[in-house]
Amino acid sequence: MSPNTPSSSAGGAGSADSAAPRRNSKRPKYSKFTQQELPACKPILTPRWVISAFMLVSIVFIPIGVVSLFASRDVVEIIDRYETACIPDNFKNDKLAYIQSPGDKSCNRTITVKKLMKQPIYVYYQLDNFYQNHRRYVKSRSDSQLKDPSSENDVSSCKPEDVTQNGTSIVPCGLIAWSLFNDTYDFSLNNQQLPVNKKGISWKSDRDSKFGRDVFPKNFQNGTLRGGKLLDPTVPLSEQEDLIVWMRTAALPTFRKLYGKIERDLQPNEVIHVTLQNNYNTYSFNGKKKLVLSTTSWLGGKNDFLGIAYLTVGGLCFFLALSFTVVYLVKPSSEHIT
Amino acid sequence: MDSKSPLENLHSIEPAISSSSRRSNFSIQSKASGGNSIREVNFSDLGSKPVRYGSRGADSETYSMSQKEINDEDARLVYINDSEKTNERFEFAGNSIRTGKYSILTFLPRNLFEQFHRVAYVYFLVIAILNQLPQLAVFGRGASIMPLAFVLLITAVKDAYEDYRRHRSDKIENNRLASVLVNDQFQQKKWKNIQVGEVIKIHANETIPCDMALLSTSDPTGVAYVQTINLDGESNLKTRYAKQETLLKIPEKEKVTGLIKCEKPNRNIYGFQANMEIDGKRLSLGPSNIILRGCELKNTAWVVGVAVYAGRETKAMLNSSGAPSKRSRLESQMNLEIIFLSLFLIALCTVVSVCAAVWLRHHRDELDYLPFYRRKDFSDPDEDEKDYNYYGWGMEIFFTFLMAVIVFQIMIPISLYISMELVRVGQAYFMIRDTEMYDESSNSRFQCRALNINEDLGQIKYVFSDKTGTLTENKMEFQCASIWGVDYSGGKVTSQEQHDGYFVQEDGKVLRPKMKVKTDPELLQFARRGKETKESSHVHDFFLALAACNTIVPLIVETSDPTVKLIDYQGESPDEQALVYAAAAYGFMLIERTSGHIVIDIQGERQRFNVLGMHEFDSDRKRMSVILGFPDKSVKIFVKGADTSMFSVIDRSYNMNVLRTTEAHLYSYSSLGLRTLVVGMRELSTSEFEEWHSAFEAASTALMGRAALLRKVASNIENNLYVLGASAIEDKLQRGVPEAIESLRTAGIKVWVLTGDKQETAISIGYSSKLLTSKMTQIIINSNSKDSCRKSLEDAIIMSKKLTTISGATNSTGGTSGVDLTPVALIIDGTSLVYILDSELEEMLFQLACNCSVVLCCRVAPLQKAGIVALVKNRTSDMTLAIGDGANDVSMIQMADVGVGISGQEGRQAVMASDFAMGQFRFLVPLLLVHGHWNYQRMGYMILYNFYRNAVFVLVLFWYVLFTCFTLTTAINEWSSVLYSVIYTSVPTIVVGILDKDLSRRMLLNYPQLYGAGQRQECYNRRLFWITMIDTLWQSAVVFFIPLLAYWGSTIDAPSIGDLWTLAVVILVNLHLAMDVIRWNWITHAAIWGSIIATCICIIVIDALPSLVGYWAIFEIAKTGLFWLCLLAIIVAALIPRFVVKVLYQLYTPCDVQIAREAEKFPSQMTSGAVELEMNAILDPPRR
């Protein structure tokens, strides 16, 4: 044999080496997952299925719609718009001047109860066209300052109502607190004071966790321009429920805020006299002010919309179910589906 | 494609020597291939001419550069055995490698820099920065930075881990040992300390640490064998040579000094250019004189070489680059829709700012005192009342616009890009793990090299396939021979079971070839008889030629049985291997080959022949020859080559009859699909030999133009041959190819075969692979000039039109079977293509090809393959796929929209250039029909869904803005808007994008026409986009206005209604997805319901933070019935229109996929014929 023999056998050994790892098969391990064969359910829209789905929706929706509509109709609501009526005749052309002028701005309104109103009767004030969701407005508050007396000077987000002229912080700071609603209502029925409970009108969670028990109003409404209600500096913020309610800014430009609760039934045809202080300036932006007395149902206030919406959707689905049934019976175009 | 690429440079491929010629023929000059690169082509350099390593004579190389001196500026000077001097002037790289990208210090900046190359991240960043401006601060700092930071962090952790692994493997690599000459002794040295100029000794089976020029080897003639499997994947041995002049030097004893002047490091693994000055002589070094890092030394006891390139400058390291990057069709379409979305975003922002402008103008007198605006700052009465946070009307509008962009930013679904990447990774995982695409024989899984174009696999219209190695196995098997005009192809199966083939005894051991070859008993008789008769002497010469005229290296391999050894024939050309095995089977066993002689065992008698000269195969001559000195001192030249090239050098006067019959046999062989080679020989007279010898010596020592000179010498001697006969080799079809082609065709994919083989072979393979059927009319175009091309094209177009219209008519009237193809097949050869491609005839060819159901191109050169792909790609919007296995397919693979490489016998170049790689052609069927279909459907749906998902949220925000004085307040908590596309809704779409299946694998394979869904773009198109957008508008309106009207004039506060909106949107989009999910497995369930639950948890957590405005809101509002009724109403009302449309569509105009789904669900009620009938007819003329 040639001198190559040893080396060729070495070469042979080498290739045997290289053959060894080949035995480690790279065959992918079989599993239902890797082969994408996991057990699965494959729903298919068969006519039967579709029709039953529509029927189901209509069966659920129509009763809900009826119930909601009834609930909404059960709510008794008295709305009294007073922002124009409470301006004396001589100021009718310059409402702004009236509201900015000092002095008593009390105004008397009478409300007739149409239907029996069961307690509790909620007293709201409703503002229209007031953008509590305006970006400048919602940002102008300091949550840490409301909670914690040590963060009193955390007022950077409150401009321009952050500090007084001498540089001390305003508590509570910011536009929201500054513009606190300050109309007041006094109700009397048959010349008797009708008590309005103003306790517990705010969320408990807010009183407990957002507004501090040891935070007291400071330098509030001391500036040149008064925005709204004054706060009693001896009462901690957690008990200033009007403020707490006001500071839960409304989502929409037309909103109600809870003023208090009347905890007795009002009989039909009873006449309530309201003495209100028309202090709050909505005249600068043509805002409306309304006083609302309302009962509630399980669905909240008076609003027919949801009931109508449910009835519409339910009716539509019923109609669709019906037409699909008819079409399916008359012209089963794809007979392979059962 | 570079249209000016010199086609003249390309030589059409000879079929017979195909395998070797395929690579050798790839003689695109570097320049041409540079121009050829269309994308970022990493492998263009590989296109340059590879070298065959044969005898020492042919080691020169052919670059035009070799003619001239290497410029001193372009050269690197390596002083042999003097690494100090070598490295004193230039800092050559050391041999330590660093594939890790980062070090601890550079990680952060570099990683961030690389991550911000993505447009998506830049968009995120710009928005986040805008948000930091105090005037624009829509979101809090944390909320705006968090998502970007999260994504960056995840990517950074992933990168860091990968880099750590690279560092670790670098460390192992750098600390390997090699023996290096230090102070005249070989000492062990770590790889990382090796420097350029050092002399290194490598022993058998060691890996080579750096690129080295060979000085000497254990072989007296200076031969060394290396295996380059790590470099190019080819497992056969390659021969390298040490220069004669350095061969005898022993570095330990005498100091070797010299200077190597070589070219700068480059990535061309088949090229090397250098001069070596040693002992005052100047030698030129070529690619056959270096061994490259990563190769292994085999079959050679040791070699000594000098390091010329080290570390990162080695060719192996320069070539280690990633996969090519392409962009999928779906993504490009999607980008157009994203432009629409951007316009929509701008429109929204404009609406908001215009409204804001009007509002500000209208209320300009009230702004100072408005309790919710308070423009004037009254806090300091001393100063004049100044504006607070108000920059004038114009600026306020501008700020409003920018803030709107920030708030509505997710209108552009940037998260979609990230989700798409994740989905593609998931899809790739499943494709790789598919057991149906695992190739047992090569032990290779499917490979996903490009991660960007998974969904393109579902839209392929044209498949361009190579033949050899792609349709066929590229395992050559000798079938029959025609010797001296006699055809030996009769009854060969008879006796092969009984005997184990030919073997020889050696020292009591049995030596037999590794592969058995079927033999023809008659021919075996002749071969055994020796030179008794005239016939048997021709047979003798024929087999001698087969055994000798090649570059095969025999390796003797031990087996488990100690008495049996196997001879393994290693060579670069499978054809040659087949021929040598055949010769061995007939008793002409090649035992040993060195550069100077060969030993052949002829019928048990060992004979030694001197190899006096060898002329390598080259693509000009298309043949090779060897000059043998016989023991009886006679000298003969044996030549084998492709028929065309052989018949031109055969002495036609000698024996016309033999020539004619051989030609006839050749024709019949190639019509059987066999690859043919012609063998010829001639005895050389002494004077002739002397003349040749001196010419050969002169040529092989020439410094300039050596290759051309050698070629000339070869051509001079290779003439006046007489023909011995012809061999026929079968290249078997791969398993499942006919079925695969059938499936692809049924799926409406046009299969074009582009091959270097000759026409007859190609046609016969066409028949055996069912590409061609007897029903088809063949149009054959073989032209030698432009005019005749034009004429035949014109005729062909007329003819094909006639045929297609007739068949179309029959199709429409009596089309009972869906599979009624337009039976026209176009067969065109490379010569004609030379005149057609890059000229005005292209258009005609395209028209013609469109009318044909099959196109076969034979004898095409690599660049022509790319040209044909470009022909289709540039004229249609249809997707093209190219599949091939060899280096000659690289250009085609890179040109096509999707390139698939077959990891087969011919190295890895095709794989390296491809987007997907697999082991067998038939895997194309599951790849396209199953995975392609799924991927396309999933991705198409996912894009639409993501558009919808983001737009619906943005629109809800937008509607609210209209009720806030256009001041971009959001009722939805800022954290919720940030988490919306990160947590609330991202997982289900990704899971569905990875896991949903519209149809089962079985169904897709049974009804290939279902693939048409992708071709017709059913899952994603402009119409669907607009329908989705209208649906989005409706859904967002429902989500917004139901709570708005239900809560109008109530005590609702912003965070509470915001929570309602958030929850409603999230549940809605998840249920919308749930409505469209086709297959519900537990993962889908977990993802969808889990997302809704996760959203609830997130909202609860956010609302439990007392520092936020919305503290406790969700608990307060969830106590009310109104909340739940709103939620229910929203979801039902929002989904009804979509549901109705979907039902109507599915019941009354079902698509193929829908029909198949129903058939799958209710198999009993439908026969398969009915299913097919209802689907779109196959090869339905594409809907335009």
TrEMBL record, chain A:
It is a multi-pass membrane protein. The chain crosses the membrane at residues 49-71, 308-330. InterPro entries: CDC50/LEM3_fam. It comes from the Eukaryota. GO terms for cellular component: endoplasmic reticulum; Golgi apparatus; plasma membrane. Residues 141-150 have a biased composition (Basic and acidic residues). Residues 7-19 have a biased composition (Low complexity). This is ALA-interacting subunit. It comes from Corchorus olitorius.
Automatic annotation (TrEMBL), chain B:
GO terms for biological process: phospholipid translocation. Residues 1-42 are annotated as: Disordered. Coiled coil: none annotated. Residues 12-30 have a biased composition (Low complexity). Residues 911-1150 form the P-type ATPase C-terminal domain. One of its GO terms (molecular function) is ATP binding. Its EC number is 7.6.2.1. It is a multi-pass membrane protein. It is found in: Membrane. It catalyses: ATP + H2O + phospholipidSide 1 = ADP + phosphate + phospholipidSide 2. Its cofactor is Mg(2+). The active site is at 466 (4-aspartylphosphate intermediate). The keyword Ribosomal protein does not apply. The keyword Translocase applies. Mg(2+) binds at residues 466, 468, 885, 889. It is an enzyme of class 7 (translocase). It comes from the Eukaryota. InterPro entries: ATPase_P-typ_cyto_dom_N, ATPase_P-typ_P_site, ATPase_P-typ_TM_dom_sf, ATPase_P-typ_transduc_dom_A_sf, HAD-like_sf, HAD_sf, P-type_ATPase_IV, P-type_ATPase_N. The chain crosses the membrane at residues 143-161, 336-360, 397-418, 947-972, 978-995, 1024-1048, 1060-1080, 1092-1115, 1121-1141. Belongs to the cation transport ATPase (P-type) (TC 3.A.3) family. Type IV subfamily. NCBIfam families: ATPase-Plipid, ATPase_P-type. This is Phospholipid-transporting ATPase. It comes from Corchorus olitorius.
